[in-house]
# Entry
Amino acid sequence: MARINSRQVEAFRATMLTGSVTDAAALMAVTQPAVSRLLRDFQALLKMKLFEKRGTGLVPTATATALYMEVERSFVGLERITAAAEEIRSRRTGTLRIAALPALSNGYLPRLAGRFLRERPNLNLAFFGVISPIVVDWVLNNQCDIGFAEVPIAHVGLSIVRLPAPPRVAVLPEGHRLAAKAMLEPRDFEGETFVSLTTGSTGRHLIDQAFNRDDVRRVLRVETSLSEIMCGLVSSGVGVAICDPFTAREFESRGVIARRFTPRIDFEFAAVFPPQRSPSPVALDLVEAMRQALDDIDGPMSGLSPVHP
# Structure
């Protein structure tokens, strides 16, 4: 026995929606005879009269109206599936789980992620700010779809995308004598009380190397693993420091002045993805948005505090 097919149901629905075979054909992008044939076969299979001719149009019978309500429920379900597929295809839906080191998660990346979400109203976000080793651990264990961690990252199997590396900056308390200079160098810090990163960290090694090359003696009184703590200490007037530019900007209105520093010491970080599976399309979109935002910065250190004579 012949069975109803989806094109017959589609022709019926299109005719109910438009009120004519001609318009139904246009809606389905087929010929008028094709729609007429589909409707004829559909009625024959159902053994129901669905339409009556009135002038140049068709009027649905009571049977057709009752059937249409059932058909429309099914089509709404299909349209929801289609819409969901389109959302997934256009990378606008689902949940994106992010872990990021504190330098990025204390302001810069949440603002960028917020703009990213506004363009994707059906996308949900889980955002965690943790130190780089934990970022890497969570990504390795598939707890996050993407992580942002300071390099080097000593783990094989992780997919890593390096991002543009901005230079670190000098941070000073408001009113400090060095704030009059637009560019600072190691010799400017001779005898200054210095807030350092923790011994053994990559940043600490690079910063100490720059000062040791010029044989500059600092008073190494305080050390910390977090740049927010570093800037908080600097804002209290306890000392000066070399800091990543993201945290420095967050503290510019909180008692800290940032200045360019030479020699350049890049703050290098990367996006990392879970092993043994492809990065999610929406995670790759976020990385690209971040890359563009970093490239679009007007100069290496735009937004630094102005120098006042």
Observations:
- The first strand starts at residue 51 and ends at 54.
- The chain has eleven helices and 13 strands.
- The first helix runs from residue 6 to 18.
- Residues 298-303 have pLDDT under 50 and may be disordered.
